[in-house]
Amino acid sequence: MHLFDEDMARSLPSPLGFKTEVTRNWSINGNPNGGYLMALAAKAMSERSEKKSLIISTASYLSRCIPGSADILVERIGLSKSFDRWQAGLFQDGKEIVRAMGTFMDNAPNDKEKRYEKSAPDLERVEDCIQIPPMGEYTLYNEMDVRLDPRCAGWFQGNLIDISEHRGWLRFQNDRPWDTPAILLAADSFPPPVFASQGMIAWVPTIEFSVNIRHIPATRWLKCVFRTHFIHNGILEEDGEVWDENDELVAVSRQIAQFRKK
Question: Does residue 54 have a pLDDT over 90?
């Protein structure tokens, strides 16, 4: 079993929801990755939902999460012919850390109308991109193979560009297939794109995160692009697109985060 599946399987039913263990395996500088926490909440909601295809997942990050035990409390907030909507709260020591919402539907048929007014990002070849190496408490990169396009990776050597954009390739290190929880993790696996223009700053903590899932990919690599256009009053946005190797759109995302230079 892949490590991600082992960590997802740590959630066990309890009277009001699930008991789980937040591991250190998906951390950024010791802090559990926001996509990983969203995946834990989404899995708990999917266990209770009548409809199994998650199409929208949102989360508010209310307090700092630490590795250790946690409770996930789930509650249905709406059921209709098309959608089943749930909310989940991840608690540690009685304090709510993350509040998530999920919208589920039945598996969509493949003959729905599809229209793309944007195309997948233009990337250098995988072998020509810059791999983010494992770095101590940045354990996420022990498991996720992230390759930045050289055109946006200059900040590693202090060479900044004029736009806040990261684009590149992504896969699990052992080529684990993609599913819904893994897509939520993928949408939060790249460094903040503001690093490309501002340099590696101390912290970009997420306030709100939303992922809209459009397609479950069968390809091993994903093609990703994340952009920040505005920084104001210490707040920035990060808009993301995740595509597969066949140029099918996998997910779109938006994060709202704090911008801290110190």
Answer: yes
